[in-house]
Fold this protein.
Amino acid sequence: MESICAGLNVVEFGSGSVAASIAGVVLADAGARVLKVESPEGDRLRAHNPSGFLVWNRGKESLVADLRTAEGQQTIRDLAAHADVVIEGFAPGRTAAWGIGADELRAANPALIHCAITGFGSAGPYAPLKAYDSLVAAKAGLWARGAFGHRDGPIMFPVPWASFGAAMQSVAGIMGALMVREKTGRGQALDATLVAGLDPIDYFVSTIVQVMAKRGEKPNADARAATAASRFGVLLATRDGRFVQTSTMLPHQGKALCEVAGVAHCLEDPRFTGLPTFANVDDAQEWEELLLEAFRAEDLDHWLPLLEASPNVAFEVAVTSEDGLNHPQILHNGDVVTIEDPRRGPIRQVGPVGHFDKTPIGPKRSAPELDDNAGPLVAHEFPAGGSSAPKHPFEGITVVEFGCFYAMPYGTAMLAALGARVIKIEDGKGDPHRNSFGPEVASTKTTAAKESLSVDLRTAEGRAVAQQVVANADAFVDGYRSGVAEKLGLGYQELSALNPKLLYVHAAGYGTDGPYAHRALYAQAAQTVAGSFGRQVGYWMDPAQSEGFSVMELQAVVLPRLNMLVDGDSNAALVLLAALSLGLYQSQKTGVGQFLRTSMIGGNAWAYSDDFCTYEGKPTIPLCDSEYYGTSALDRVYPASEGGWVCLAVRSDAEFAALRDMMGLGDVTAADDDALESALTARFAQKTAAEWEAQLTAARVGCVEVNTMGQPIFTVFDPVLRETGLTVTDEHPVFGEMVRAAPPVAFSETPGRVAPSCVRGQHNRAIMTELGYSDADIAKLEELNAVIPPS
């Protein structure tokens, strides 16, 4: 069977665009021919992030064209005439000014799907801001740490979350647009944004903010304030300075950790019987200190065998991304591949976004040298179409979801926002995420635009209902560990026999099988495998920084500086979205079902993929300083006047020249980082952050006023997001009107779908009536407790 994207011609351009590069490489891995258009100097990533360039451009070809010239612009027109997809990463209006924007290219090729990736969209006050990860994150409030930060001011983490998220969302959008084109014969214009790419990393706090506001309380955008009397994850330090990230989402996991630590006697204390939630902050802190004291008494070599012997302890040891390449489960899953590069030799790097059993995907060759290509794109017939367009890109696709918490359910929620019908199967208690942080609070995002079917799969009647639903579905997504679905009649063999066209997706924590597959996994431990500690808080992860510290000193000095952003679930959700959309495109075209494996650890490896690689001569990835102000003088947060902060990001010589002129830096050079930082610190203190943003943006220098209120408050209350359509409202069944992010990709012809969240069992009767059950049938199944009505 052909590769998923075999025969597709993709043109990608936008120098230095991480998002465009990642979107393009996913399509290249899936078999598309991807032609990367570069300037005569080469894509900026070749110098700015060489490891990222190698990974994010593997399998592509390179074509040199100077788009500032008439000749270069004509090159794009010629390419687009035979292309199926164009991925563009330039600033809004740039390509239109050159005569090669979406409208011009699509007028010449109506079958073309044009996907533009910008920072904040093409219109509104934020459109001129540079689409650099640190700037978008700063503007959106991701650097705000509130009262729980170890110092005043914003904390920077040098991970390209916004670009990574926008890239995976773009892949899903492109697959949806290709499916629409099969029906209509027409392409369309897509718009993805880096700010939408960041939305998955806000798991539930935007809901808490709105619930507090509705109660007349002052909104607090710090998730830790909302969970201060809980310990859903405990970071432990061993005697030899190694850090162990544990996840204790469920009571039995906390108890298992107590047993491993040798403090099981504390379980008899009534203050700790409700762990991982406690009556007050003091009780929670005392339980944490018991564990810290125990682990600090022995080296990692003592604890590791004990932790591994207890399957109910969810944990991982803090490592760098390069260390993560050697994780036994990463290796078992095939999430590391080795590509031979003509100049650098073998490069070990992240594997494909998903493992398909009938149409495997993955890289075939390394990133191209400049202008290394196989000639012009070969023209081919585009789909004839003839049918009317659906309302939404994935309309007509039904996905059945069987899983809980965030990683898998939010991946399918993003697909639901693009128009898929997603039916969530729940038992009588419902997804435990529904009550993790207050009734229905945490599940607001994960159940949006879905339908809930509540059945008892332990009964033959409940299993029969679920199987009937899957028999009519296009995909089934299982988020549990191997064996759970099989015991309940929802295994691959059983369901594929019922529905041979079914795409069966196992989106597990560690994987479908292998040495760690039986273990539970949650966000904090999942991201640890991929090297989040090394990338986000690398300075303080070094055992030398905490050598000899007591537990009290650890708590006062080190642990506050190891407070990372929790991205383990959001990264996994985004990669699942991309892989699921690829699989659905394939099954819709061929009518052939297959088995697809993804994992949380594999998804997180993709988020850190520019450092999740190793080769001879690999340069060190830039990390933040010990206080997390930035990676250099030109990628850093600075205090401005009147208590504000700016984030500066300069990526080119032209931008630095403009900065130097605007700031009056004289002879200070970019190479003298200390002198440059000192000069910039003095200059930024002279004006407000808003003034600097306006003046430097006008000079085409990357600078924004840092939002210190936090991402959730920005999402909920920012008027520019509402005016530009980046946020929307819907009617939540419990909380009433709620603000949330718009569908992740905008489409010119088939827009995404905005629909409210669901409560458990809300759609029982509608779904069962559709399957042919009468009211009497449903009543009988309810009497048998095979179908559980909503509370």
The chain has a mean pLDDT of 95. The CA atoms of residues 352 and 362 lie 5 Å apart. The first helix runs from residue 18 to 29.
